[in-house]
Each structure stands twice: as structure tokens, then as C-alpha cells.
Amino acid sequence: MKVIHLDLGKEWRGGQRQVYYLIAEQSKRTNLQLFLASPFNSPLSKQVKEAFSQVKVIPLSSSFEFSIFNVIALKKIIDTNKPVIVHTHDGKGAGLGALLKLFFPQIKLIHTRRVSYPLKKFWSKKKYLLADQVVGVSKDICAYLQQIGMPKVHSIPSVIRPERYPVRLKYGIQETPVKLGIIGALSPQKGHEWVLRALAACPLDFILYVVGTGSLEKRFKKLVRILNLEGKVKFLGFVESNRILSHLDILLVPSIDGEGSSGTIKEAWASKLGVIVSDLNANLELVKPEVNGLVVPVGDAQALVSAIQRLVEDKELYVDLVKNGLKSVRKFIPVNLERSYWQLYQSFFRT
Fold first, then answer.
1. Distance between the two ends of the chain, CA-based, in angstroms?
2. Does one domain contain both 128 and 172?
3. pLDDT bucket at 46, cuts 50 / 70 / 90
4. DSSP calls for 217-284
């Protein structure tokens, strides 16, 4: 069986890491011939090429989903008598995969969708409808896809490697300032703004570490000055999460929309860190309130400050959340990801 993983991203983000984890596990199977098609010199293609000599990396000419040159590059692999699965991992990749399905209807096409944003344009929906199977990384994404008419939908959550994350050495919060953190792109859907406004009224001695880059960085820095939070908020830019999480006391995941299956929640659990999340459906698929994290309504500044205060003041609660988080993260490991996709692949060729 040939499997062509298709990712047109030129960055190294959570989605690309998921592709890497899946390929790493699949490379252990002797009955799979693996390919990765990605833009020339993308971070993902470089990492896969360095780590897995048995995986053929196909350098694509661009990240443009309608590129005929990309179609030609992939035709050489598809045009055989062997079963071929094209597995796409991002929106543009889904578009290219749909084109391949139109040219080569004999392939089996899987799209993995990692975000819950609505599909508004004709082609955005059509490219998913052309797939033989669509995987949503959360049940919330799957429900939306079924709602807009996609019958072949399957849920497979994203995973982490817990061993990558140094653990926090202390239980509870024992010193000030309390170290808070937000990890994610500096974009509207991640909820940074309402957190900053909430913290402006927080009576605790704290410092907030903002990890990530994005289009709203200047706006957020200006807001920090307006709210007199200078010295209490530090923008760190891009930092690998496993370098920062164990130094924090509380991870905040205040997303407003668009969440898939949050990797940072799982990473915080692996790091023995207390977690506070917004009440998006995708977050609630992972976090059980008062069990492995605290949940607050989106945009509720007072509830957020109260939740932070609870974790600071109630060591027993903090310890319970951490212990249950460690249990929860065991489900989200790469071997489970690979097994789920293997079952899906096999389903195409059962008679």
C-alpha cells in the first residue's frame, strides 16, 4: 500500500508536528510505502528527510493548491496498479488532494481537518466532499462537517509525545509572582485580548508569559501599555512549548473559536501544570471541569481571575487537577494515532 502524506504548509506548527508523529509511527510498518509531499525545503520535509531514510520526500514547487506542477510531480507516484492513499493535512493540501481525486479517481483520499472554522466558499466545501473519508481531530469538528452534508466523517484526536516535556518539580503554587502562560498564535481567535483586560483587574502578584507570534503582536503590546501591565506581561515570541511549560504555574487556553484538539492542553498535563480553559466545545472534549482542569465562560473576566485565585490558594485542588491531567494525557500518544489511521486505511480495501 502506498500512502502519500500531503501538507502544503511552509511553517512548523502543531499540524506539521502531527504529520511527523504519524509518519514516525507508520515508518515502523513494513507493508507501507510512505511518501511526504511538501513545499521544497519546508521545515516538515527537512525533518522527515533527516529522520526517516525509508520515507520518500517529494519537493513540491509551491504551496498553491491549484498548481499543475504539483499535480505532475505526484502523478508519477499515483500512476501505478498499487493501492494509493492520498492523506492531506491542511486546507491547501486538501485542495490539491481534491484535484488529484478528479484526475485520478482510483485513489483513496483522506482529509484531516484540524480547525473548526466554517467552510464558506463553494470550493472549500467541495474539496472535502470529494474525499473518501474526512477526519476531524475533535468531535466538534466532525459534528460541523456532518451538518454541512459530509457523511463519511471520523474522529481521531491529535497527540503529543509526553516524554518531550520536562515535568514541573513542585506541586501547587508556592511562590510569587504567579507565572501564567498563553501559548499560541497572536490572532483574534486565541483570546489574548480578554485575558489581558481581565488581568488588569487581578489583585494577585503575577507575570504573564505570551508565547507565539502573529499579526496582532503590536496591538497587544499597545494594550499592555494602556492597561498599565508593563512589567507584568512578557512577549517571548516563538518558543517551543517544552522549553517553557515546566517553568509556569498555570496555563491559560482562552480561545474564542477555531480550536481543534488543543495540543497545549495535553502538553500542560504532561508537564504537571494546572490548566484553565474557555468553555468551547473542543476544549470540553478534553477538560472535565474540576477534574483535570478549570473551565470559564469565554470572555468572562471575573470568572478567569477567580479561577486563577482558586488554583493559587487551593493546593489540594491544584494537585488533584495535575494528577488527573497526567492520567488523561496517556490516551493521546502517537501509537494510538497510528493505530486509528491504520484501521481507517484498511477499511478502504476490505472486501
1. 16
2. no
3. very high
4. HHHHHHHHHHTT-BTTEEEEES--GGGTGGG-SEEEE---S---S-HHHHHHHHTT-EEEEE--HHHH
Report yes or no: 263 and 337 within 8 Å, Cβ to Cβ. no
User: Does 64 share its domain with 144?
Assistant: yes
Together in a domain, 175 and 243: yes
By C-alpha distance, which of 111, 87, 115, 268 is closest to 180?
Answer: 268
Phi, psi angle pair for 326, to nearest 5° = -60, -40
Instruction: Answer whether 45's CB lies under 8 Å from 37's CB.
Output: no
- Only one residue has cell 497572536, namely 186
What are the pLDDT digits (tens) for 232-291?
999 999 999 999 999 999 999 999 987 888 999 999 999 999 999 999 999 999 999 999
Q: Which three cell numbers stand for residue 32?
A: 507501507
CATH of the domain at 138: 3.40.50.2000
Q: Which domain holds residue 10?
A: 2-159+333-347
- How many Cβ atoms sit within 10 Å of the Cβ of residue 235? 15
- Amino acid residing at 127: K
Instruction: For residues 106 and 153, state if they share a domain.
Output: yes
Dihedral sign (CA 293, 294, 295, 296): negative
Single pTM value for the model: 0.91
State pLDDT tens for residues 224-238.
999 999 999 999 999
Claim to verify: residue 313 and residue 339 sit in the same structural domain: no
Same domain, 97 and 245: no
Q: Do 33 and 81 belong together in one domain?
A: yes
Residue 224, CA distances (Å) to 8, 201, 235, 272, 274 in order? 35, 13, 10, 29, 24
Average pLDDT over residues 206-223: 96
Number of separate domains in the chain: 2
Residue 112 and residue 8 share a domain: yes
pLDDT for position 338: 97
Q: What is the DSSP letter of 289?
A: B
- Give residue-wise pLDDT tens across range 117-132: 888 888 999 999 999 9
